[in-house]
Specification:
It is a single chain. This protein has 491 residues and is α+β, with helices and mostly antiparallel strands. It has a single domain, classed as Amino acid/polyamine transporter I, CATH 1.20.1740. The chain is 70% helix and 7% strand. It has a five-stranded mixed beta sheet with strand order 3-1-2-5-4, with no helix packed on it. Helix 1 packs parallel to helix 13 and helix 11 packs across helix 19. The longest helix is centred in the first third of the chain and has 36 residues. The radius of gyration is 25 Å and the shape is globular. It starts with a strand and ends with a helix. It is a multi-pass membrane protein. This is Yer119cp like amino acid transporter.
């Protein structure tokens, strides 16, 4: 149900169509953008850092993410007020009427002439804010930088998701099936999932589709429940895997949580679709999104780490459960357990959720591409959407046709250099610039600067330090000598 407001001014009748989604739907939409592949890497993170340290790191990242989301909400709210004040004189109606209608296409414009008057039906799409728009409202070039960052991040994330679910699907077939086929089915899955993501990418107002976000949330909730129940069912398997309680804080673990909590590129879009935009609801949505994500990540992380302990492979839990040669799947098969079906159920639910997340990420790419001059020449919004999504999927699918590219490197690059700045550096940068323009040099200004410095420092240190350490360890003469002596002794 949408509401039309009819304005009479200067002999022109203007009908503005408005609508929105509820607070709960806004929260589920936020969860749809939050719950991606990062969730399935949390068991490895908890096993690496230990439950206590990992929980503290997760809460820390979740708390900062809550502040970051809230900052974007509040800045969007203030920008809406600023724009309404600028257009106040133009929008003052002589007479106003409101009617309710059912309309599926908010972007439809109907124009006709009647007694020298023109009636136009306009949607709120013309007044929609964007993450890029917030940056441009402060500094023009900042918006352009953010636009490029969002495109690169979203394309990389869709690329990662498509590659991940294609590898999972190939693993589910099993070695015997793959060998009998005679070719690598990975390429077929890449094309298949590319077509599915392309089809979903045709929705122009994705955040308002309640059922899509609810399916994504349900798939995550079911997988969390299954992994949790496995701890009580597979007691014999769990007892053979003891967790070492002496763990420490890890930069890679923090990076995993940052990647998992990243949703800021869609926050402003969700704000646009909210029906009741008041400070109370904005705080509620930001808090529920961050806290809810922390709860689900903790459940998955703790349950998975307790199940595998220190013997957990250095990979995500979905890859482990999808691999017929993994220790837990072999255990279920050897014991003729009726829970062997989780070998297929959990990965399939993960694939459904990640496909939806890929569509959400793709929508962020097309929003940016639609503003490029080349694509602006396409007048039809439907054709423009089809062209941009098709080109992006073709690019991503072509890159994923080279399976030699490792998931680990892509994951680290996205987490450190893409999600991290967009999630923290830019939102707090907005706040710092606004405080500077208002000559407000208080706690908000200096606090924002601290968050910006930490974000940028972590991006470089978190990515380079483990690799430098690994390089030095591999080329350490003492380590090489010890290895040589050990090999000679063994021989």
């Amino acid at each position: 149900m949408f509401r039309l407001k009819i304005y009479f001014k200067d002999g022109i009748i203007t009908l503005k169509m408005s609508g929105g989604i509820s607070v709960f739907s806004s929260i589920t939409a936020m969860w749809s953008t939050l719950f991606g592949v990062g969730m399935y890497f949390t068991p490895k993170a908890f096993a690496k850092s230990g439950i206590l340290y990992a929980s503290l790191q997760l809460l820390g990242v979740g708390g900062i993410s809550f502040i970051s989301i809230l900052v974007l909400f509040i800045l969007s709210y203030e920008e809406i007020i600023r724009q309404s004040e600028i257009k106040k004189e133009e929008d003052i109606p002589l007479k106003t009427y409101s009617i309710s209608i059912q309309d599926k296409d908010l972007e439809t414009e109907v124009k006709y002439a009647q007694e020298n008057q023109v009636m136009a039906v306009k949607s709120d799409d013309e007044n929609r804010l964007s993450y890029t728009g917030l940056g441009k409202s402060l500094i023009e070039w900042l918006g352009s930088v953010i636009d490029i960052m969002i495109m690169i991040t979203s394309i990389s994330t869709v690329l990662f998701f498509q590659k991940f679910i294609s590898l999972i699907s190939t693993s589910l077939l099993g070695h015997s099936v793959v060998d009998s086929i005679g070719f690598n089915p990975y390429y077929v899955f890449v094309v298949l999932y590319g077509l599915i993501i392309l089809s979903g990418g045709q929705f122009k107002n994705l955040q308002s589709i309640d059922w899509l976000s609810k399916i994504s949330f349900a798939s995550i909730a079911i997988n969390c429940l299954i992994v949790g129940v496995m701890n009580f069912v597979l007691v014999d398997f769990k007892s053979a895997h003891i967790t070492n309680p002496t763990k420490t804080v890890s930069l890679s673990v923090i990076s995993t949580f940052i990647f998992a909590m990243f949703c800021q590129n869609n926050v402003v879009e969700i704000f646009n679709d909210m029906k009741d935009k008041n400070v109370k609801n904005l705080i509620l949505v930001a808090a529920a999104a961050s806290l809810g994500a922390c709860v689900f990540y903790a459940i998955m992380g703790i349950a998975g780490s307790l199940l595998f302990g220190d013997y957990m492979p250095n990979e995500d839990i979905i890859s482990i459960l999808a691999n017929e040669n993994s220790e837990i799947v072999k255990h279920l098969f050897d014991t003729n357990s009726k829970f062997y079906c989780i070998h297929f159920i959990v990965p399939c639910f993960a694939i459904i959720g990640l496909l939806i997340s890929s569509i959400y990420q793709l929508s962020a790419v097309t929003r940016s591409l639609n503003e490029v001059k080349l694509f602006k020449k396409i007048k039809s919004k439907t054709k423009k959407q089809a062209v941009t999504t098709f080109l992006v999927i073709c690019l991503i699918t072509t890159i994923n046709m080279f399976p030699q590219m490792g998931l680990g490197l892509v994951f680290d690059i996205i987490g450190h250099f893409m999600c991290n700045p967009l999630a923290y550096a830019f939102p707090f940068g907005f706040l710092a610039i606004k405080c500077y323009n208002n000559k407000d040099y208080g706690i908000k200004f200096f606090g924002s600067l601290i968050f910006i410095i930490i974000s940028i420092s972590f991006a470089f240190v978190g990515f380079t330090y483990p690799r430098v350490l690994q390089y030095l360890t591999q080329n350490d003469p003492l380590n090489m000598t010890t290895t040589t002596v050990s090999n000679m002794t063994f021989n």
